[in-house]
Amino acid sequence: MVSIGGDEVAHFVEWVDFAGNGVQPPVAPLLDPTNGLEFPNFIANGNKLVQPNLIFPVPCEFISPDLPKCAVIRPTAPLNGGAVAAVTALTATNLFLGQPQAFFSTLSQLAEAADAAVRM
Length: 120
What we know:
By secondary structure, the chain is mainly alpha-helical.
């Protein structure tokens, strides 16, 4: 998802919504007898944060409970899709052409802090 645009993300999440609905009772859990592929009941643990068909904005409590409802896309591989990678790619396009060195230093520090952030 890191390399696709907002419209494609919207289409993706709609597909996930429909697909997610199929991985819950009475269909799930499901075991394909031909190859052993198993689809567990993804909503069995009751954790709304991993509910497979929950695609619309929800309170973003893992960042801050004070935030309003919002949608967040987080990269799964910071090396290629994190903040430092984004800053590097945007800088390479000359988007920030003419900015002073202090700008790049601050931007780099923020990106490194973002990539180093962990959930508490």
